[in-house]
């Protein structure tokens, strides 16, 4: 766990009374696991990082203060020095990186009180998920590799996006797809990519031609040549570009809007959805809805499928929540997602097919004909959930199940 030393692990137990038991257990198990994974010299190094953490956190806070202090002062009346003091206090008490002060609105008193209940990205992705890795991976490549994922879903009767073509090292993978491209919009993405980076879309305009999101018109063979060229750097696949359910298209800007659902193994050994967020593109030129690519996300009420207000990732300096889509003006808050029970059921059914994994983040598109799996993430990011929820998940069902599974693994 050599990359889990920033922020450095605690060597003391938290005494914050506002931190829920489940969240506290997750923090303590992760801290203990990091220390136990280190040799004597590494522990000395980690101890030096702990001692230096106040200075490190101060240096890390400065660019965030330059970017956001004026906006937060206008919003809350808190000046730069007070914001800095609160950021440093969070870093020392909860090891929260300065960006979380703004992302999770910890400058608000009601959020600050709940600081210990937030699940932090480095803690989940770098420690907890590693502790929970299956001892024998059966479906590891099938969930990470998007070609293998599509084929796995097809074999197991899970509704997912079919493959049109795949390319690696400049050459087409012969056994994937047919000779002719379908007369439909096309989407290309990296086989092992994350975050929607370097994804491309071409819209079908008829007569064998497509238009890219940048306005360039090309033929079908040109599309394939472009993807083949990109695959010299890393493998790519081509799939039909799906269109959202008619009730959601005014939120999509042409890029498929998807639901991110977290599923987790529960106390009975089954799987359940713990949280969900609905992601939308906010840039008409973007081919994806990804939160880390400038998109926005709204929380989803699990019982009803109803959306709350949406926001971006919260890095500032504009901190806005949208009841309506910032580009289309279509209502977001209070809208109910179609096929919501079916979407929840699909996520649970999919997790059962990848049963050796404890936590999976599913990206699901809701189409006219129902929900479709886009991909699964065995290192599910929790930032999008907590930012859109405007609250922590360590004191909810996710925290309870994460703590339960961690205790089962380390006991």
Could you walk me through the main structural features you see in this protein, from its secondary elements to its overall organization?
- The chain has about 400 residues and is of the alpha+beta class.
- About 35% of the residues lie in helices and about 15% in strands.
- It contains twelve helices and twelve strands.
- It has helices at about 20-35, 40-75, 80-95, 100-105, 110, 120-130, 140-145, 145-155, 220-230, 340-355, 385-390, 395-410, and strands at about 165-170, 170, 185-190, 200-205, 210, 215-220, 235-240, 260-265, 270-280, 295-300, 360-365, 370-375.
- The chain has a seven-stranded antiparallel β-sheet, covered by helices on one side. A five-stranded antiparallel β-sheet has the order 10-9-8-11-12.
- A hairpin with a 4-residue loop joins strand 5 and strand 6 (about 215-220).
- Helix 1 crosses helix 6, helix 1 runs parallel beside helix 12 (about 395-410) and helix 2 packs antiparallel against helix 3 (about 80-95).
- The longest helix has about 35 residues, at about 40-75.
- It starts with 20 loop residues before the first helix and ends with a helix.
- The model has no long low-confidence stretch (mean pLDDT about 90).
Topology:
Elements: H1 21-37, H2 40-76, H3 80-94, H4 98-103, H5 109-112, H6 121-131, H7 140-144, H8 146-155, E1 165-168, E2 171-172, E3 186-190, E4 200-206, E5 209-212, E6 217-219, H9 220-230, E7 236-240, E8 258-265, E9 271-280, E10 296-299, H10 340-353, E11 359-367, E12 370-377, H11 383-389, H12 397-410
Antiparallel strand pairs: 1-2, 1-7, 3-4, 3-7, 4-5, 5-6, 8-9, 8-11, 9-10, 11-12
